Amino acid sequence: MTLHLGILQTDSVLDDLQPRFGDYPSMFEQLFRAEDPAVTLTTYDVQRALPETLTCDAYLITGCKLSVYDDLDWIRDLADFVGRAIADKRKILGICFGHQLIAHFFGGYVAPAPVGWAVGVQTSDLIKTHPWMEVSGKPPEQLRLVSSHKDQVERLPQGAEVFARSDFCPISGFTLGDDVLTIQGHPELSTDYSEALMGVRRELLGEQVYQTGMDSLQLQTDEKLFTQWMLAFLSDSCAQTQPADSAARG
């Protein structure tokens, strides 16, 4: 069966950058369909409305410029929806804000990072491997992805396991049982987009952070590999869920 992935869109690309780069849903569509042209994606603008029923096999929570600890109804409602989805055996992918939301609302803790902004290409060490990482052969020792965040997960939910870390971001990626996979980096973002976004935020970032981020863009990134991992992680979702009775259970 074809994987049906729900994109829980929490924010949009800046208007000035959309003509060149598109918005987050199109970025994820390009990312996943490059590896699996048959995948079906449905986008939900969760700041406006959450899905009424659990119609997708799995859900992905996108990045967002806001913080998960901001006192906003839609953020709390999103966390409630994710909890219901996990209880119904739908797998969850958390990207940046999504990574932090899973931690913060399921027993962990998120706060502004003492080290400040992470921008450009960030390198994480892989400290634990999983079978879904072997889809493309032996996993590498490190993972490089475009990043853009000033908050970090400081404490994990109970039962969560870190698989990627760095000195800058000790909890760069984690799993929660067999149902949740999160990453602090952005597999959907290109280095060209990172360069453009850093240009917009240059004054906010400060010159040293900006220059370090720009220099890092020369590194090769692993978005293709991580997308293969995400698809392998989700590969049994279709077998575990039955779309025909989703509405009755949602």
Strand content: 15-25%
Domain unit count: 1
Mean pLDDT rating: 94
Number of strands: 11
CATH homologous superfamily heading = Class I glutamine amidotransferase (GATase) domain
Sketch the topology as an H/E string, one letter per element: EHHEEHEHEEEEEEEHHHHHH
CATH fold label: Rossmann fold
- Classified by CATH, the class is Alpha Beta
CATH architecture: 3-Layer(aba) Sandwich
Largest sheet: 9 strands, mixed
Overall shape: globular
Q: Strand order of the main beta sheet, please?
A: 2-1-3-4-11-10-9-6-7
Q: Low-confidence parts, pLDDT < 50 over ≥5 residues?
A: 241-250
Distance between the first and last residues' Cα = 20 Å
Helix content: 25-40%
Describe the fold and architecture:
This protein has helices spanning 18-21, 24-35, 73-87, 97-105, 191-200, 202-205, 207-216, 223-234, 237-240, 246-249; strands at 4-9, 40-45, 58-61, 91-95, 109-112, 118-126, 142-149, 151-155, 160-165, 173-176, 180-183. With 250 residues, the chain is α/β, with parallel strands linked by helices. The strands form two sheets. The protein has a nine-stranded mixed beta sheet with strand order 2-1-3-4-11-10-9-6-7, with helices on both faces. It has a two-stranded antiparallel ribbon with strand order 5-8. A hairpin with a 3-residue loop joins strand 10 (173-176) and strand 11. The longest helix has 15 residues, at 73-87.
